Amino acid sequence: MKQPTPEFHITLDGRDLTTKIAPRLVSMGLSESRSDEADTLDLTLDDSDGKLEIPPRGAVLRVSLGWSDTGVIDKGSFTVDEVEHAGAPDVLTIRARSASMTKEMGERIEKSWHGETLGAIVRKIAGKHSLKPAIADALSKVLIAHIDQTHESDMSFLTRLAKRYDAVMNVKDANLLFMPIGHGTTASGKKLESIELTRASGDSHRYHVAERENYAGVRAHYHATGRAKRKSVVVGGENNHSIKVLPETYATEAEARAAASAELNRTKRSQATLDYTLALGRPDLYPELPVYLSGFKPQIDDESWLVKRVKHSVGDGGFTTGLELEMRDDPTSDRHRSHFRKVSK
């Protein structure tokens, strides 16, 4: 029986370049991240005959990945950001980032936000950049008394808010997503189905567990209304020997509690991590998918996992998918959001 082969489609500003690129492909890497950084596409092409054109920065690449027997899956659009031509032998290297991540989102501005809900902030920034906002209801109603955006880009500001409220913040295909980490739903509210992976599915793995980040609780400080002194709130245990203290001072007790709760959940998820390379690429996998594993050690198989980052690679070694997994904090991911202060109805 004929073995399936890797398949991909690539367009540049709408022009199909698949047949031109396929015989020249040295390697392709496509990384999808949960937040903090843009999804990236790296292409290395053989230009030993000198016939390749160097694409202009700002050109848009659209990529689909898959297999000859199952077809391809659209992985989105990417804007050419960096180009390098080197030799000999001559090769052309192209690096592109998520197409919806506009240049304007990286420009630093000065702005103060007063008495706004998180949903209102996300929607205003999305509208400013012609993006469609998608924010979970659990986060949308969170009230922020005051926050300054000081010499800070909209992208950096949204990333900071996402960290404070333990959320996924990403820009994909003209959508600005702001969802709770581990929430288990898509932007449209559809439930994400868990996937099961076995030891036999992979080429290599690396499991890591550490005690140094095993805090019993997190302390955050805030400005008490009408008082000069700071006050603090602790989420988790009160054991002073294992309390992590956040450096920032927040405007209200509710905001301090939310930040401490988010940090505690991040700490719990990072206590154990697993890097896993699948022998056969899975273009259907992406960040935030719940994962169950089998065939490893009991400590690995018994854990609930969450996809943090995905890297698809196509080259001489075929098509593989590398996963970065972290512990899934479900069901605490829903429970801890009750600490957030919401607008009264």
Automatic annotation (TrEMBL):
Residues 319-345 are annotated as: Disordered. This is Bacteriophage late control gene D protein. It holds the Pfam family Phage_GPD. InterPro entries: Phage_Baseplate_Hub (IPR052726). The lineage of its organism: Bacteria, Pseudomonadati, Pseudomonadota, Betaproteobacteria, Burkholderiales. Residues 325-335 have a biased composition (Basic and acidic residues). Residues 336-345 have a biased composition (Basic residues).
